[in-house]
Amino acid sequence: MNKDLYISLISKKLSSELNAAELKDLNNWLSKSKDNANLLEEFKSVWNQSSSYKESIVFNADAAYDSFVEKYDIPEEYHSDPKGTIKINKYLLSAILIILLSLMALFIYNQFNKGVVTNNNMHAMTLDLNESANVTLSPESSIKNLKNSLNSNNSEAGSPIKLNSLKSLDSQPLRDNMLARKLKGQAYFSLNNLFSGIPLSLGLDNGSILAAHKASFNIQNFDSDNKTIIDVESGELAFQSNEKLVTATSGQRIILDEQSGKVIITESPSLSPFAWHKGVLAFDNTPLTDVFTIIERFYGVDINVTDNSPVEGHFTAFNLKPGSLNECLELLQASIDMKIVRKGLKTIEISEINAD
Questions:
Q1: What are 50-92's pLDDT values in tens digits?
Q2: To the nearest 10°, the Cα dihedral for 329, 331, 336, 341?
Q3: Which uninterrupted H or E stretch holds 137?
Q4: What are the backbone dihedrals phi and psi of residue 193, each rounded to the nearest 5 degrees, phi first?
Q5: Per-residue pLDDT, 148
Q6: Same domain, 321 and 227
Q7: Residues spanned by the domain of 252
Q8: Count of structural domains, the chain
Q9: Helices marked H in the chain — which ranges?
Q10: Per the domain annotation, does 101 fall within a domain?
Q11: 83, 112, 141 — which closes off a domain?
Q12: With 6 labelled, which of 60, 191, 266, 292 sits at a CA distance of 20 to 30 A?
């Protein structure tokens, strides 16, 4: 059996189209050596990997086929019948069709998620939502930008609707004026509604909605926390979770317990929850477990304690603006004795903690 016929039969086997005689012929060939049998698994892998091709990649079927054929040194003693070339053309077309369908599915998926922005950097990232509104995302945070939904020439511009007069934030006018939705992680917003009397609105990935005319505020919405925290730095905003609707102003904090659905309003902590978006870290006798969490979210890294060391001790550092993650870890290590090892770009292993 030569290369062309072998690949043809493999294609048909993957498509479950072999007849009994062909299946027997292929199985006999595969059983002649372990290497031959391994080629089936390798071909399956190549076949499956085609589904991961991104839309921007141009797939050259001829080049891919030539590369595959040349890769394997198949013994010359196996000869194909004259129909082999015809068969390979037919099943190559089938393979190309499957690849095109996979790329089409990927395109549809990308269109469905069009506008989703994820900060994969190890620092904060700011993007404009419109001419007078922006958001700063912390590492590993994401949001779906609906920039096109807001018209700067909105004909409904006029006296702003008071937030405390709203009965619901889940109304069509506010949905039409929604800047972004599906926020996950941490983000600092600066909004200034210049174009409409209807408040600007934002949606979180847990279904909660915020609305404001002019305000700056920070949102923490991490899956691992089971709660959403919103700190208002300036202005006024409204927040709704299910049927619960509240308003908060500068210096106040809204906390949603996602398990009970309870919403409370308290004062924002004295340690600024806003400084991170300017690249500043602040710790005030902060427990070491919280220090690790803050650093993880600030840089988008994973910190793992690899032994039975007690994660105890406290760390204090005001207006800390480290030039790099390494510098931040060195400052922490100078305060609390521990062994710190970087494993790759985004994994940190800590052991031998001694807070005494």
A1: 545 444 445 555 665 556 555 555 444 444 444 455 455 666 7
A2: 20
A3: strand 133-137
A4: -80, 100
A5: 47
A6: no
A7: 117-267
A8: 3
A9: 3-14, 20-31, 34-49, 61-71, 84-112, 172-176, 288-299, 325-335
A10: yes
A11: 112
A12: 60
